[in-house]
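TL;DR need structure tokens for one chain.
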Amino acid sequence: MYNMSNKMKKVRILSIDGGGIRGIIPAVVLEYIEKELKRKSGNVDAIIQDYFDMIAGTSTGGILTCFYLHPSRLPAGKAIDLYADNGSKIFKPKGAFLNGLLSLVTSKYPVKGLETALNDTFGNYKLSQASKHSLVTAYDIVNRKSVLFTVPEAKKNPQQRDFSLKDIARATSAAPTYFEPASIKSMDNKVHNLIDGAMFANDPSLCAVVEARKNKYETCDNPTIENIYLVSIGTGKESQSLNPKKASNWGIAGWAVPVVDILMTASPEVVSYQLKQLFEVAGCSDCYERLEPELHKASPEMDDVSKDNIKNLKEAGERYVTQNKVRLDKIVDNLIS
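>> reply
TL;DR here they are.
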């Protein structure tokens, strides 16, 4: 088994799953990791982006990716506030009557709350201004293809591949049935119509590994599995069962939301298995860290923004930190070394 004490320099990748308001959980875990990075490195100004060469995310993980890459170097704890302070504004129902009457023919939530929160957080900063590599996912519904927002491409081809961070965050989190598709413009004013990247990669870590192979880093160029250290974080394990009797009578309307939830749950399971096998075959299984906090009392619904659930999500993250300090501290040591 590979020993991280063997000081081969690694390309360090952070990957964050999708999951709506459940993004609070990885935000809490990463706040702890950042605090320990400050303490152990002796650098009080250290932030998450200083210790990763690439940050990847899908949906809520894509929003967090934009946050941790923010050119003004935002502290990790502020990401928790982003959700706690804006959750009820982002997932604000259109009204009981409209929700009941129009839920079959329109999105569940208006986009104004989401777009306001993203504008307040990211302003006019562009992806090309990020100091580290990125990978944020979305899906193009016009050209029917996956879209990957990456820093290298944004800098190489700024007119066609560079976008504002708020627009990237809007696109990656445009979950079908929850929000209408995002219509955003690249720097050359070309319009792109996009939806949530969870449709093909709710856990974007495998995409990140493949993307890393194309790029140059301070530690090495075109890294192979042996040259990568990957930390992948979920947004709370889903354990709520679907009733088979009820499901047998569901049509398009009945399956709409469950299908989205299944896509978000099944994708990370498959990706985690694939990556585990890849790292094991390469003889460096210790270089893949998959963190999967339990939801515990928190709701699995990605739009449950009640005060009680916000509290439960924070506690779920804190509980994971408390129960896994040895493992998290080892990750911190590896990142610093």
